[in-house]
């Protein structure tokens, strides 16, 4: 589970109370009602460039009689050492750096990075301006519907943003602490 400690600007990844990794938050912006320091279920993750996973269906290959070739029978690439093989797996570099996490009770957590790249900086500036323009509209809409609304904007470094997206899973219970 994760503990989002917004007061100390730290995200802590824990297992059975032991901190496995801590992520430093560069900047936090908070909008809306307060959040109780109780477990909140992650409902969904949204990113424009979500990583694509290849589906491997071993049962389908068995039925067709075309079992997947063993790693030892595949020709080795030119620049590899003997005994290694190429695995199509999602890695940290495949994860997005800008995304939104939606928690139970309509808590939205937007994650962005601070970079020096001009194109990314322009995107983040537009996203941040859009965040400030849309929050009053979303607050009014949710109050009309009788639902609570809280939005949190986090700025992380690029590697930490990717690591958070990669390791947080939907329907997990996480604590958001903002006194």
SSE pattern: EEEEEHEEHEHE
**Count of individual beta strands:** 9
Spans of at least 5 consecutive residues whose pLDDT stays below 50 are 67-80
Shape assignment: globular
Protein described:
The chain has 179 residues and is an alpha+beta fold. Helices cover 25% and strands 31% of the residues. The chain has three helices and nine strands. It has helices at residues 58-64, 118-145, 158-167; strands at 2-5, 10-15, 18-24, 27-32, 39-46, 99-103, 107-113, 150-156, 173-177. It has a nine-stranded mixed sheet with strand order 3-2-1-9-5-6-7-8-4. A hairpin with a 4-residue loop joins β1 (2-5) and β2. The longest helix is centred in the last third of the chain and has 28 residues, at 118-145. The radius of gyration is 21 Å and the shape is globular. The two termini are 20 Å apart.
Quickly list its features.
179 residues, alpha+beta, 9-stranded mixed beta sheet, 3 helices, 9 strands, 25% helix, 31% strand
């Amino acid at each position: 589970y994760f503990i989002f400690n917004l007061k100390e600007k730290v995200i802590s990844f824990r297992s059975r109370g032991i901190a496995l990794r801590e992520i430093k938050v560069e900047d936090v912006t908070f909008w809306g009602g307060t959040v109780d320091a109780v477990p909140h279920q992650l409902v969904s993750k949204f990113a424009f460039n979500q990583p694509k996973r290849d589906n491997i269906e071993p049962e389908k290959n068995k039925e067709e009689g075309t079992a997947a070739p063993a790693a030892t029978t595949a020709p080795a690439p030119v620049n590899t050492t003997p005994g290694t093989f190429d695995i199509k797996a999602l890695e940290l570099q495949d994860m997005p750096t800008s995304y939104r996490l939606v928690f139970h009770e309509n808590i939205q957590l937007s994650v962005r990075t601070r970079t020096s790249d001009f194109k990314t900086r322009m995107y983040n500036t537009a996203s941040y301006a859009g965040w400030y323009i849309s929050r009053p509209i979303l607050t009014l809409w949710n109050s009309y519907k009788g639902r609570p609304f809280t939005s949190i904007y986090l700025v992380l470094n690029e590697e930490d943003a990717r690591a958070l997206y990669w390791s947080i899973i939907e329907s997990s219970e996480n604590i958001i602490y903002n006194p």
